[in-house]
Amino acid sequence: MSEAGPKPRMRSRRIAGRNQAGRAGATIAALKPSSDRPDFLGFGLGLRPQHYSEILEGDPPIDWFEIISENYMVPGGKPLHMLDRIRERYPVVMHGVSMSIASTAPVNYDYLRDLKRLADRVAPRWISDHLCWTGVHGKNLHDLLPIPYTQEALDHVVERVQTVQEFLGRPLTLENVSTYVQFGTSEMAEWEFLAELTARTGCFLLFDVNNVYVSAFNHGYDPETFIAGIPQDRVVQFHLAGHSHMETHIIDTHDHPVCDDVWTLYESAVRRFGAVSTMIERDDNIPPLAELVAEVNKARKIAAGVLGADGRNGRTQ
Ligand SMILES: [Fe+2]
Is residue 103 in some structural domain? Predict the structure, then answer.
């Protein structure tokens, strides 16, 4: 991983270092691939504390919000109180950063119990995390780390996804991460790994358009190849975000507006995947809400240009 330039984004997260084998009666069994893709929610935004009051007082034109799960996996306090009020008005989805689904560490059932408890309270439309690992041997490295795309890794992640889905009682949604290194041992492309993972587990995919752009630039492939390699009926959400271009490489910093190239790639993604719930993901240099609403509306306009006025035509279930 590059040592130069700004650090990759480190979203606020709780350290989940309590791995243990205490399972709640779950057994490992494959869930059948699910064809009941969640409903299209429209155009949303990552919920950030800076905007709580403005959202509750201003009723902004945002269709739904995504929360960072770990920020609300607590017994009480102001963030949870604000979330309770916001979810009375808007659909909410949960997005985690600590599941470490690809790790070789034991599944962290304490984490999963807390996640399920939050889901019972919030009733999210879906629960997502990343195809990555964040730690091993009791250490959380607080970053979304890449994996080798091998058959062995695929078998391992398939079993872990099945375990988590069985525990949560619902399909998981997994996001492609930005990467800065590749493994010489990889036997398939990232999109082939994701396609096989969703086929074998029934999990859904969160397609981060910016992450595809970043990884494609860093590793020198055409991002359109990635789009073409993902199954059309498994993507339930798009992320759009800004990054830091260092000329020789790109770092996924989430501290800028979405750039023109990523908007163009988003248009291609909408053309392939149809009406998919889309949101702006900003984690640093967080601007006033109005600036993010303008980006949400830009996504809305681009999707409408491809799919029609309500952005819903072309939705494949
Ligand atoms: Fe993302």
Answer: yes
Q: Which residues of the chain have pLDDT under 70?
A: 1-35, 310-317
CATH number for the domain spanning 47: value is 3.20.20.150
Q: Ligand 1 centroid vs 32 CA: distance in angstroms?
A: 26
Domain assignment of residue 227, yes or no: yes
CA of 235 to the centre of ligand 1 (A): 13
The C-alpha atoms of residue 208 and residue 217 are separated, in whole angstroms, by: 14
- What whole-number distance in Å separates Cα of residue 190 and Cα of residue 257? 26
Range of the domain at 96: 43-307
pTM of the model: 0.87
User: How many separate domains does the chain show?
Assistant: 1
**SS3 call for 229:** helix
**If you measure from the C-alpha of residue 233 to the centroid of ligand 1, how many angstroms do you get, rounded to a whole number?**
19
Residue 31 lies in a domain: no
Give the pLDDT confidence of 221-247 residue by residue, as tens digits: 999 999 999 999 999 999 999 998 988
- Across the chain, mean pLDDT equals 88
